[in-house]
């Protein structure tokens, strides 16, 4: 059990990096799609980007606390 937990803790930086890159891509797509933000789909994209950013901030805080 401890080995599994250690494995996931070691994986966290990679997951953080990947999620950070994905969020940047999502935000870039949202910024490029400002013209279509009037449509409901556009606001969903912004909501998803905000949620992803919040998750990344929480994960980074957890990582800072764990060190």
Short description:
This protein is 87% helix and 0% strand. The protein contains 2 helices and no strands. The chain has helices at residues 2-32, 40-66.
Structure description:
This protein has one domain. Helix content is 87%, strand content 0%. The longest helix has 31 residues, at 2-32. The radius of gyration is 15 Å and the shape is elongated. The relative contact order is 0.14. The protein is an all-alpha fold and 67 residues long.
Q: List low-confidence stretches.
A: none
Largest sheet: none
What's the mean pLDDT score?
A: 71
State the order of secondary-structure elements, H for helix, E for strand. HH
Which structural class is indicated by helix and strand composition?
mainly alpha
Helix content: over 70%
Strand content: under 5%
Kindly provide the radius of gyration, computed on alpha-carbon positions and rounded to a whole number of angstroms: 15 Å
For the record, the count of structural domains works out to 1
DSSP strand count: 0
Distance between the termini: 21 Å
- What is the tally of helical segments? 2
Transmembrane segments: 6-34, 46-65
Keywords: Membrane, Transmembrane, Transmembrane helix
List the helices and strands and how they pair.
Layout: H1 2-32, H2 40-66
Helix pairs in contact: 1-2
Transmembrane segments: 6-34, 46-65
Keywords: Membrane, Transmembrane, Transmembrane helix
Keyphrases for this structure?
mainly alpha, transmembrane helix, 67 residues, membrane, elongated, 0% strand, 2 helices, single chain
